[in-house]
Amino acid sequence: MQLFVWALPLLTLVCSKQHRHSSLCENGCDCSGELRFVNCSSSLLTHIPTDIPPTTEHLDLSLNQLSHITAVSFQALRRLSVLLLNDNNISAVSGGTFSFLESLQRLDLSHNQISALSEGFSLGLGSLRELLLVHNQLTSLDLGSFLHLDSLLRLDLSSNAIHSIQVRAFSCMSTLRQLHLRNNQLSYLSNAIFSTFRSLEVLDLRGNRITSTEVGVFTPLKSLAVLDLSHNGLSTIQFKTFLSIRTYSTHILLAHNPWNCDCDLQRVFRKLRSVHRLFLDDYLNLSCGEPPELRGYWLSQVDTELCIAETVTVLIITVTVVITVLAAIIIAERNRNDSSTKQWSEENDMYCDS
Predict the structure, then answer these.
(1) pLDDT in tens, 94-136
(2) How many CA atoms lie within 13 A of 331 on its CB side?
(3) pTM strictly above 0.85
(4) Parent domain of 115
């Protein structure tokens, strides 16, 4: 009897917890796998539920109306490996929000309104493999943005408004294999911003405003397999910029840039195409933006004529110079002869008079 009385509060507590969890799973959330998978997507939530089972490993809170999250929301969910917060109204993430989620491997914050990442944003995310921040309002990446992401393999920052990246913003992500910066507002790539990416295989810079790069910006990328620079503002490029990529095989995408089709550009691409480890996959789709008379033409259609035209121009100038010099020599010789003849005539007249 005493044992029953002692066990009654414990039984009540267990039943109470089970009731709370079942209540969660009955009111808009689906639970499965012994409460390890909790799906609260599209449940019109404005706050994160407080009765999420601590055994949860996969939590889907996408397509709700969440606006702000704090560390208190997840402090009991230490087993969580996947957290989906995409398609909410989240505008701020407090420092240390994910500090208890040491097992988290995938975090999706896409399609929110996040404009800045605090220094404590990545605290506790040492096991994270994939971070998605697509379609937010980020404008810059600072030194403290990604301090603790030592195991990250994929970072997607596409479709933000990023126009500046501090030199050491990615310094703690030496294991990163994919970096997606598509559809941002980058205009210039300086040396050292990718200096720690020894393992990077995919660098997606499509759809920015890049007009120029420093020559050695891609040099540290020893494992680069795909470099996408299409849909930018490049009009010319230096041969050494790509030659510095030492990967065994790298595929480079450069279409939809306003290329200035002249002899220099033709020489650059001719040399690039001869480098066996570099593959210009969309070379046939490169079009001319300048000069005006070639605008809209494919570079491949006119590349053989670019240097011919320049050579003809040089020949014309050379011939003109030679003719001018020869004419000057002839005129000078004629003048000299006329002077000599005049002098001889004068001397002869003087002789005859004497």
Answers:
(1) 888 999 999 999 999 999 999 999 888 999 999 999 999 999 9
(2) 6
(3) no
(4) 20-185
